[in-house]
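Q: I'm a student working through a structural biology exercise. My instructor gave each of us a protein and asked us to get a predicted structure, then write a short paragraph describing it. Mine is ORC1-type DNA replication protein. I'm not confident about reading structure output yet, so if you can add a plain explanation after the tokens, that would really help. Here is the sequence I was given:
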Amino acid sequence: MDTDDSEHPADRSGSSDDDESSTEDRSSGDLSTVNEGTQSTLDTESDASEADTTLDSESGSQSIEEMLLEFDEQEGLIRERTLLDPNYVVEEDRIVGRDDQLQEVTKMLRVALGDNRPPNLFLYGPSGTGKSLITKAVCKNISQICEPRDIRFGTIEVNCQDLDTLGVAVYELVSRAADEAGVEVQVPKHGVATKEKWDELFRIVDENFDSLVFVLDELDMLVGRRDKQDPAFSRLLYQLSRAGADGELETFISVVAISNDTKMMESVGSRALSSFTPEDVHFGDYDANQLQAILRRRQDAFYDDVLDDDVIPLAAAFAAQTHGDARKAIDLMRVAGELAEREGDPRVNEAHVREAQDKVEKNRVLEVVRGISTQKKLCLYATAAVAAESNSGAARSTTGYKVYQFLTDSIDADQYHQETYVNKMKELTTYSLVDFERRSHGPSSGMFLEFQFGESPATILETLREDSRIEMVSQDEVASVVQAQIRNEG
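A: Happy to help. First, here is the predicted structure for ORC1-type DNA replication protein. I'll explain a few features afterward.
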């Protein structure tokens, strides 16, 4: 049977030693002794209570209730927190620097308003450049226009980053489609063939929608099982686009594939490519001025006159260093505001933004490295260690590989060949954590890749050292090896 290709991790159960205690019943025939003991106990408890009260008073500690009430009485700095959520679909007049992309996506999806199927789209570009925002904003407006026209228009949005296999992805689409339609799913998540999940998805779609747009964010992350010829995202595109194009359904289906990887379509199989045939829309980096404009359109998230003048320019400058990432700029503003509120400060200032930068950067790195294998962590650690010591802040693949060899030898881990090391580093580019360029320093040196980091190499190293195996390796020894290899580069 074509069984669900999701992987079920084995259940693990641990045992712990239970603390055993025995009680001894003690009795006394002398009632007066019992009464005296009771009175003595009460006196002792009273003394202890008075002592605790005195201690609390002396230490100035507050109860949970007191702290909550005190915070409730404080005047906050943030008035509308939804505006500081990068996933919140803002009004059209708050969308900045994406007029061309907004017009293209609108023109192509607007045919859903009539009796036509919208074309499939491929939106690509670095993270935080407005791909998801534009798609959601256009679909939201189409839905509002369709409602009074009795056109059953729907949008199914799925982020593929945490979906392991095709079976898991299809069931996620089933679940989202059922939620959108307000109906129950009639197949279980596990234990059935993936085909049954497809059948359930198309049943829900055909019975409840006239036109439907599937928005597949970070689609390139859906790789699936390695034993399949095509990646899972290719097979997903094939099934969705074929169902929408060959008349199997009465519902008009359109697929919007979103990716940070500009070369994702090169990995799509020939069958999927012939049925998907998307219109491409490129999203470039925001520059610092555009990021400032984006933040100024959201500064009414704060109360009037609580932002220092240098807060928005500084947050925009930090975000511009990371591929012009608007998500990061908005996150920085939110975290800076929350830090100021927690500290009881009356205004958000430069110090709060700088502290927020450190926090957001580390959280983003943590989010990435928690989900990658030990081998990828070793590749990343070796490369970041070289970048941290080099004058350019970049790392040659040849040098990084030698440091990687030292790390694997140090912890007695399996060691990949250099080509595999390079491929592992290339895979990490999909997280926007690292990028690379092909370089050559003359005919005698040959070609190599040079890796640059979107986040501080020092932050990456610090985060990776939370892995117990990497922590075993001396930082001084790693630095010594890196410096020796950098000297040999010349």
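A: Here are two points you could use in your paragraph. The domain at 372-489 is CATH 1.10.10.10 (Arc Repressor Mutant, subunit A). The longest helix spans residues 31-59. It's a good idea to check both against the output above yourself.
Q: Great, thank you!
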